[in-house]
Amino acid sequence: MIHLRGAKALRIAAIAATTGLAILAGATGAAADTVVKWLHLETDPNYVAVWRKIADQYEAKHPGTKIEMQFLANEAFKAKLPTLLQSKDAPDFFFSWGGGVLKQQQQTGTLLDLTAAMNAKDGAWLKSYNQAAVKGLTFDNKISAVPYKLGTVSFFYNKALFAKAGVDASAIKTWDDYLAAVKKIKDAGIAPIAGGGGEKWPIHFYWSYLVMRDGGQQVFNDAKNGKGNGFNDPSIIKAGEQLAALGKLEPFQPGYLGTTWPQALGVFGDGKAAMILGFENTVANQRTNSGDGKGQADDNIGRFAFPAVTGGAGLPTDTLGGLNGWAVTKKAPPEALDFLAYLTNAENERTMAQAGMIIPVAVGAEDGVKGPLMHEAADQLAHSTWHQNFFDQDLGPSVGRVVNDVAVGIVSGQITPKDGAQQVQDAFEQDQL
């Protein structure tokens, strides 16, 4: 091995000792800066600024390492990432939703197995996270991503518009209650729901939650493992019928099939729709995407869980949401791992939680969660009886795309619930070949 000189050589050697990675050094003399390429899809400039400050602090403590942030919009990210990972321009680490997509990326050999690095030094790095988060990002006993955050999808509503329509959000307990509320809001001349059908995945939340409420964990697990009736299970078809019933009420704002997710957040933030089914950080994101940059005041926004389905096997405490992490590519320098350990330590995860960005997974960062609605999301997750990753991620990229297409097709009346279930089943069977 050729030896690097100076402080940078000692630091890299220390990283190598921590991670157990073999490092090939460059030529003698002063080493050039190491650039760590970080690929994300965050559109909120306030959140990006928090990350950038953390990266700047890291750079100040680690001369010779530069953190380069790269951005791709959500749909472009999903479309381009498979090709990008095989190219010389692959990022060193990137955002991941976990699930079948991450597992497939691991199986293609493009990702670094993080198991040895996170277990080094008596597993100090590994033990710094919620262990359920680590387990959720582990496939075939290989840790495939560094845990970042947990999240859950729920309804957010405009209190003033609900009051105008005479709707009591606390009374929405079942899907029938929800449909009645939608009708009442529409009768009051208000668009009930801000929908982002242009990107499709925001609509799949409805189908996914209804499948969970109707069929429960056993039906979904059987379907994704090729057992029983698969995605043609009667409860899954029933979920489609319930989604179709919602669609017949025309609950979304005009033009929702061409609306992106940021635009849907803007519709809600501008007070042009009474509800939105969104992430735990929807309160902050609706501000950013509103016309005036202020959106709805925090105290005018309420939140409620996706309602139960009468007679369904699923529990109202079952949750749908993300378990997100940072996947590392095989070409990444050891500095990428060192930075990720820093980015996701308790102090920095607490800072991100305080900014309303995340429900943290770093042990000891829980006290950073601020705001009553974010606290509600964290509490809901703490009492979740089954936390299911997003269907379009859990089922892998090819089946996930069909799930998103089917959800939009059903709610817009373009395909029947039975045909939609069959399309997902066909995609699943094709994916198994």
UniProtKB/TrEMBL annotation:
Residues 1-32 form the signal peptide. This is Raffinose/stachyose/melibiose transport system substrate-binding protein. Keywords: Periplasm, Signal. It comes from Rhizobium hainanense. One of its GO terms (cellular component) is periplasmic space. It is found in: Periplasm. Pfam families: SBP_bac_1. Its main location: periplasm. Belongs to the bacterial solute-binding protein 1 family.
